[in-house]
Amino acid sequence: MRYFLLLTLICFLSCTESEFRETEAADSSDTLAVPDATPPVVDSELVEEDSSSTGVIGPPAQNLTVTLEAGGLQRQYRLYVPTTRDGTSMPLLIAVHGGGGGAGIPFQQEEQFRMLSEYERVILAFPIGINVGNNEADWQLNTTPDRQHDIEFIGGIIDDIGSRYALDESRIYATGYSLGSMFVYELACHMSDRFAAIASHAGSMPLAPASCNPEVFVPIMHIHGVADSIIPYSTAWDWKAWDSVGTMTDIPGLISYWSGKYGCQTVTEEETSSSTHIVHSDCQQGVRVEHHRLPGDHDWPFSLNGAVTPQVLWWFLSEFTR
Q1: Residue 145 domain-assigned?
Q2: What does the DSSP assignment read for 277-304?
Q3: How many domains does the chain have?
Q4: What is the pLDDT of residues 181-217, one digit of tens each?
Q5: 72, 73, 225, 310 - which has most CB atoms within 10 Å?
Q6: Cα R_g (the chain), whole angstroms
Q7: Which residues, given as ranges, of the chain have pLDDT below 50?
Q8: What CATH number is attached to the domain comprising 79?
Q9: Whole-number Å distance between alpha carbons of 209 and 201
Q10: Is the separation of the CB atoms in 167 and 173 below 8 Å?
Q11: Which positions ≥6 away from 233 have C-beta within 8 Å?
Q12: What's the whole-model pTM score?
């Protein structure tokens, strides 16, 4: 029955964005609300208990922008807590936007992610990046001890949500797009004790990271198009003016880096309807490294092998706990 409902949900999500909004306008009682253009801002220190919830702390959160202090900076993230919460602890999925995709810009397929949130009862957090110092982009790459502001920010988000909602600390996950995909590998390197798995699209990582020696291994899924002209699939590349990050690796090199670090012993490759699915398994600590090699470009794919992309990501992520 669960899979029948899931297939029904996927079919519903396959409609176009315009059709979704038209249906929502016609009958808002049957669908999720479209995010407001200017969501309310909440100071994390001023949030009160919600007595209407079943033992869950925190206000109803459909599109809140929360402000907190982290790494000596004032930072913000957008928060979505499912209306289907029932008092049991919930997993958290942090979705990291690409370059220039911060405040006021929805994450890729955000409406579908919100549908997933309601169905799976998972909290969503959308951190908003900022450009710090001489960085060329919104998220700090090649993290070092003196450049921890974004790592501290993500930690602050987890702590803030955990202080106000029933959060399952063993099921914290991350996804990202483009630059956001690059940053989730910083999480795998520097916050592996907090994340159960990561899955992202169209990113890369430094060819020679300054520091990446996690004691706890994080399962990884990476999706990438071979025709990507922004983040090349087959060649390493350099930033225009971000020498501290260094050369970024090609995608086969990225997959090789993690599968080698994790000591994976088995690799399988399967041609599917929309990707070449490569799986590195029999890895240490029971993790896995998966890669969907797409024929397309840098654009976020709406679906993979007949399922909407957020669902494909969640199927992988939710297999793992910390």
Answers
A1: yes
A2: EEEEES-GGG--EEEEEESS-SSPPSEE
A3: 1
A4: 999 999 999 999 999 999 999 999 999 999 999 999 9
A5: 310
A6: 19
A7: 1-42, 44-56
A8: 3.40.50.1820
A9: 20
A10: no
A11: 224, 225, 226, 227, 250, 251, 252, 293
A12: 0.84
